Amino acid sequence: MIVKLELYDIREAEQSYIKFGNRRVVIANSFESIREIFVINGASSHARPRQYVFEKYVGYDLGSHSLDANFKAQRTAALRSVKASVWPSFYACLEREGDRLIANLAEQGGYGTKAINPLPYMQVVAMALGWSITFDKEFGANDPWLREYIDNACLITKVRGASNTWSDFVPFLRLHPKFRAMGAEGQKASKRRTTMIQEVLEDLKARISAGENPTCVAAQVMTDETSNLSLWNAVKCSTSMLQGGTESIPSHLTAGMGGLIQGHGPEMQEKAFAAITEAYPDNDAAIHAFREEKVPYVAALYKEILRNYVVLPMSLPHAANEDIHLKSGITIPKGTTLYMNSEGGNHDEKVFGPTAHDFDPERWLRDPSLDKLGTVPHSSYGIGSRICPAWQIANRIMYGLLLRIILSFKMEAEPSNLPPKDYRTFGCTPDLVLSSPKTFGVKFVPRNKPELEKEISVIRERESRMKA
Q1: 120: which residues sit within 8 A by CB, 6+ positions away?
Q2: Long-range contacts of 351-358 (CB under 8 A, 24+ apart)
Q3: In a domain, 38, yes or no
Q4: Is residue 341 included in any domain, yes or no?
Q5: Total structural domains in the chain?
């Protein structure tokens, strides 16, 4: 038996004690259980389990490796590269990609006359932001080099999940052609991705040596005199930063749009729009979208999207690096694999009340104490010492993109292609580590079409001048 349930049903218990093949696993299912194991006992639960597919085929990265001295140095460099004091160097890029997104949504959606699937547009803007912020490199959306990179990254993602890489837990399966082929595909993609990143970094290194001062994460890492990272470690660090943001942000935003075009969603859009125009009476909201979080309602939107639509429902596995003694009297032995049921914790009625299963952004305005639940009030970025290093800049990116979209458009559902009704059904890839949203249609209807057309004309003229 590959999976053996022990003691409790996985959905009801504070912790579930199960076996994946020959490996003992503990799953934290409630908000408090996640907090106890991964925050209060964070010093004992920050390791990563050994993963056969990663060791033999793909190679570990910053997110999947235990924090030895080498990876601690990478994480420290990652944290420094995206600290709030360096954000101003990213603003020009964020504003440029925000402009492009608005123009693309308007033009491709026929200025609200036809529904489009928002996910590809969110992926393009996230990838463009990722490359620009991480490597100070720009691509067109259809650049073949970029498309090759995206394809390789997607292949690697397929071998990251516990639910589709059972060869990590059942050694006999490693002989099966299916799992050998999966590993070989991941290995080929990983090698090619690393080569591509090295090419970009070598070019960046040459620019720095020539006296340029690129404002990007990789440059921050390579020029940080206190980190002493080698070029190879800079590759691993920068790759991890790029992979994470370009996978999760598009899925979160797209799933959130599904909530905003059904039920009370249209009312939420109008409340957000009213709050934006009240905060910026001089009609300069777009200029400030990424520079500050001045509109609490828009901040509440991204918080609720992150809480409600969990694109990494089981997060990435941890391992107990020493015995963990729980307040219940239970001891989790050293070496045990640990999972956080992020979807369960984010919908814990003991914390979020009877509306925990509803998409309700205003909960963050009604109850300010929710923001004091921890470093972040959910586990969608991970939690504790292994939380995503870029979680703060990711929040700002989501805030800015939501503000720009709501400022320019009313989002409307397409009756023939409706979004999933709730968080339980929004994902189309439940067998992967990342649950990508199902396809649905959105009409992006301009709030003021003549003004938007003028704005987009200016955006396109500016792009033409930059290319010239």
Answers
A1: none
A2: 351/31, 351/32, 352/307, 357/422, 357/423, 358/308
A3: no
A4: no
A5: 1
Distance CA 321, CA 298 (A): 40
* 332 within a domain of the structure (yes/no): no
Judge whether 388 lies within some domain.
yes
Binding site per annotation, positions: 388
Query: CATH number for the domain including 365?
Result: 1.10.630.10
In tens digits, the chain (468 residues) has pLDDT values of 444 444 334 445 788 888 888 889 999 999 999 999 999 999 999 888 877 777 766 665 555 555 566 666 667 767 777 788 888 988 988 999 999 999 999 999 999 999 999 998 998 888 888 888 778 888 765 678 877 887 887 777 776 655 556 777 788 878 888 878 878 888 888 888 888 888 888 898 899 999 998 877 778 777 777 666 666 666 666 666 666 666 789 999 999 999 999 999 999 999 999 999 999 999 999 999 999 999 999 999 999 999 999 998 888 889 999 999 999 999 999 999 999 999 999 999 999 999 999 999 999 999 999 998 888 899 998 888 778 888 888 999 999 999 999 999 999 999 999 999 999 999 887 767 778 899 999 999 999 999 999 999 999 999 888 776
**Coil, strand, or helix at residue 443?**
strand
Note whether 127 and 155 are within 8 A (CB).
Answer: no
3-state secondary structure of 47: strand
Q: pTM, whole model, 2 decimals?
A: 0.88
Q: How many other β-carbons are positioned within 10 Å of the β-carbon of residue 455?
A: 18
Annotated binding-site ranges for heme: 388
* Angle made by CA atoms 186, 133, 464, in degrees to the nearest 5: 110
Q: Are 157 and 190 in contact (CB under 8 A)?
A: no
